[in-house]
Every structure is written in C-alpha cells, then in structure tokens.
C-alpha cells in the first residue's frame, strides 16, 4: 500500500479511493527505492513518497486534498495517511544535511536521516499546538479565524513557542487573540494533525476576567454562545475541535 503525495494531495483511485500499488507508482516516475517505509518494523507493506508538483495522475486515479478524504477513508487508513504524509514531508525537506549540505542517509532502525559527513541527525518534525474551549457559565467562546477558508466557528488555538509549556501557551494565546484571562485548565485530549506536522493538545478553561478584544490579523470574530443562541457551523466530529465543542455544548444545543 503506497501513499503518494503531491503537495497536500494524496493519489487515490477515482471511484474507490484505493491507494496505488508499486506498479502504478512506477508509471508516474516514482522509483521503488524512493518509497519510504512508514514503520520501522521489517516487512511492513506501507510506503510513502512526495512527488513533484507537476506530476499528473495516471488514468483512473486522481490527486485529492488530504482534508477532503475525511469520511471517505476509514479511520485506520486516515490515521495511516496522516502518518505517511508527515514522514514523506520529513524525507522531502531533509534530503540534505542542514549543517554542511551533504546528502543525508536514512538510518534503517529508526526515523532518522543522518549526515555521513558531519554526523548531524534529523528526525521527523512534530509541532505541538494547543486548543482551548473557554466556558463562562452556560456559554462557550467560539471564534472564526481570518486564515481559514471556511466560515466555521471553533475553539482558540495556537502553536507552542520555544521555552513555553502548553499551559503557558494557552494563557498567552487567549490573551493575545481575545484579550481574556482564564483559569482551571483541564486536559481534554490530543490528535495528530498532519497539516503538515502538528500535534493538537486540547483543553477546556474557565473565564476569569476581561472583555473580548480580538486580534484582527488572527481572529475575524469571537463571541459567547449560550442557551437561546443560534448554533453556528462548527468543525466535524472527526477533528479534535469538533469533539471538544460537542462535549461542552450549551444547554439546548445538539450537533451531529
């Protein structure tokens, strides 16, 4: 089973979303040796690779946005696709040593690309990010971000900066994005988010003080939603945001 990516698109059979075999990969110019294993266990049938942006799919196949395959691929294959994408992206962006420029070599026993000249080792990048749903009585705070293509409302989120704990990131991001102070942080769950290499860690928090003041370059709108308010369009259940919001819906709300 091969995961072939063109940017953030996955090659699948047009009618069934079946993944291509090695023969199909060879037809579009992918050498068998270029396919990276996504597990270190010997004999694993899963391989992954990035192809150049100009590569066209063979007849009967199409490149589809990875996000669009939520609900098309089952949960197991979607999780494998996310893992495969991160490994393919790591291999694509670490072909050469970042210290001396020598071509890197794959270490067969672990996910490591090592420089044969200076010994520098590069491992798959994972970028931790936090998500927080703020509660105020019977209401929750939802925001619409300026950088997303959809009009969905969701919880606040942001990347961890050097030297920060997840909790410190939550307090900083909440204050920066909406001008509020929060407390009683409670862990909710986490999800690998391969767009391109994040780990989303979700929390709930209680409102402490402040009035909403949005960071306009990040947040298009933020408001409290509670009993009697119309429910906005929210993220699907398959995402950590969708699960977090659904687990804390105000009284009288329901969502599929």
Automatic annotation (TrEMBL):
Annotated PROSITE patterns: NUDIX (PS51462), NUDIX_BOX (PS00893)
Matching PANTHER family: NAD-CAPPED RNA HYDROLASE NUDT12 (PTHR42904:SF6), NUDIX HYDROLASE, NUDC SUBFAMILY (PTHR42904)
Entry keyword set: Hydrolase, Magnesium, Metal-binding, NAD
Protein name in the entry: NAD(+) diphosphatase
Gene Ontology BP term (one): NADP+ catabolic process
Name of the gene encoding the protein in the UniProt record: nudC_1
Gene3D superfamilies named in the record: 3.90.79.20, Nucleoside Triphosphate Pyrophosphohydrolase
Pfam family, one: Zn_ribbon_NUD
Species in which this protein is naturally found: Achromobacter insolitus
